[in-house]
Structure formats: C-alpha cells, structure tokens
Amino acid sequence: MKSLLAKLFAHENKDLRKRIYFTLFALGIFCLGTGITIPWASVLYEELGFLEIFNLMSGGGLRSFSIFALGVSPYITASIITQLLQMDIIPYFKELKEQGYVGRQKINKINRYLAVIFAFVQAYVISIFYLNTNDVMVMLKTSLVMTAGTSFLLWLGDQITMKGIGNGSSLLIMAGIIQSMPGIFTGAFNAFITAGAYNLALGIGLFILFLIIYLLVLVGIIWVTLAERRIPIQYANHTTSAYGAQSSFLPIKINSAGVIPVIFASIVLTIPSTIAGLIKNEAAINFINKYIIYTTPTGFILYVVLILFFGYVYTFMMMNPEEMSKDLNKRGGYIPGVRPGADTSKYISSSLGKLTVVGSIFLVILSGLPILMANISSLPSSVTIGGTGILIVVGVAIETYKQMESGLVTRSYKKRRQRR
Question: Radius of gyration (Cα) for the chain, nearest Å?
C-alpha cells in the first residue's frame, strides 16, 4: 500500500493523479445530488422492503425522494436480466456474448435503453405506493425527474470509467453506501452514550464493543472476498518435453455470486406484499405481515432458504462447469489427474458446489445480522452490523485498487523498456 502511494504521487504519474481527482469530483457531484429533494415529494418514513438495498446504494436518496433517488439500480436490473438471457435463453443474446468486444458493446447499449425504461416504471410504481397524492401529473413529474437523474448518473458513470479510475457505475454505488455509513456510527454513539439509556462507563464500553464487532465483520468480508480456490491447470505445447508445458490455475471465488442472491431473495419476499397491497385484501396483508415478511421467524427462515437457493442457482448459471471444461479443452488445457471432458466438468462442478455452499452461508450470515440485531437490541433501525452494503464497498474498493496497481506496474514496465 505504501509503495502504491509513493508511485502514485511520483512526478511521472501526474496524469494518473488527474484521473483520481476527476473521479473524486464526479463522486462529489453524486453526493451533492442525493441531498437535493424533489420539491413536491415528501420524505419516506415507512419500510421500503427490498428497496432498502437500493436506498442504501443511492446514499439514502430513495427515502428522501432526491433527484438521484434510484441511483444506478435500474441499470443493475437491466444487466442482471441480459446476463440471464445470455444463458442460451434467447439465441440473439448468446450470439452477442460470443462476439467478444463488439457483442459486449451492443449488450451495454441494450442495458442502457432498458435501464431508462426500468427507471421510469420503477419510479412511477414507487410514486404510486409512497407519494401521498392521487394527482397523476405529480406522479408523472416525479417519475420523469427520477428517470432523468438515473440517466445523468449513467452518463456520469461513463465519464468516470473513461476519464477517471475504476468502473464508474460501481464507484457510484460504493459512494452511495459510504455516504450512508456515518449515520450508523453516529446513531450507535447516540444510542449508547448520549441517549442516557446506559451509565457513561457501560455506554462507552458497549460503543467500543460495537466498533470492534464492526471491524471484525469488515475483516471477515475482506477475507471472503479475496479467498479463492485455485484449481491447477496445465497447458501442453507442441514439444514433448515435460519442461515445455506451461502450468497455471483456474481461480474460483468463495462468493462468486456477489450480492445478487440477496437482491433476488428480497424481491421474491416483497412480491406477495406488493400484490396484496394492490388488491387491498386485508386478510392477505395480515397473513403476509405475520408469516412472510423477513422480520418474522418464518419469513426469516424463508429469506435464508431463498438466499441459499439463488446463491447456488445463480453461481452455476454464471459459471457453467460444462462450458468451462469445453473452453479449457479448446485451449489445450487440462487438470492434472483428471480426464478432459465429462470428468473435468464433474470436477469443476464439485469444487464450485462446495465453495458455493460456503459463500451462500456467508451471505446468509451477512444479510441476517442486521435483522437479528434489530430484533434482539433496542438500537435504532439505522444502526446495523453487517449487511450487503459493506460487501459491495469492499468488492469495489479491491477491484479499484487492483486496477490502479496494475496501471502503475504497466507504466513502470513500459518506461524500463524505453530506457533500454
């Protein structure tokens, strides 16, 4: 880390520092926009359900009905849908996937068009459910402003990617989550020390314990994010000598699915309450509030089962062992001691399955901690330990750090060659 900072502030890397400054400036614009509330909209005080995670990503902008209330969540939704469509569901999307860079550009363009459509639909539905008005024009104006905010953030994310450091959309999500984090610590400080619920010594001790637990959770997330199973791979070239073979490895992360299983599980649990709210069936609403919502015991169990299910399904959809085996065979690679073809596919599938179980259990613990904490403690709902938001921040921060480090190493290598 120290060596990276030393290289970063070296005179010859002035252009890289400019990219960092541009990134910080763009993220500042995003943070400023999350504080600008739509004039005719009101702040929300009720539960948002599965939208809580999108509220977190937008820096609390959804709850305050800011111009950036939706953040880049519609783009995330569009990206997930097109990823699923590439799994041989629609031939056109599979063809785009196989076209390489050109195909990725077309898919990205489709994602942006879909994101704008999803943004308007999502904004209008939110306006219907959460705005205290029956005025259609007000709901339409709110939807258009929120859609325009999302469109601007997509453009801003592109500018960060091209002129700044890291992936623009991911950094905007990370900035939104980090922006909401100070409220966690100030809320904990007020609850333990200034509220007077505990004597001063006990309150300070509990606050320090809270910080220690939070730090341990953060370290655990970093460890799981970086942990991977490296399957040894050997590539045989045209020579018959054992020294002519090239060895490598196939990395498989413990949590390959990221936060997608949690998002899917939250959406599935919220669908019944949304339908019940639309049909206004009192008996259905009471049943859902008693057994389906994840703050209830049965709802929490269902939430855990759904995370485990989607974690397993999504991982195997994104990392198809059969396709990985075929790709390995095409490149002349093989796993030592394992036959190419079906045996290689089974071996990869077995390794991926075991890691997915561990990764899904990790997701369950991470997403379940805030719920359990809210039920067993008297802390305000804004004070949480764990949560998928930290997982997103850690993942984006690690990827951005690796990109910066890779860029500095590449520049250093080019300069050495020029000197020679």
Answer: 24
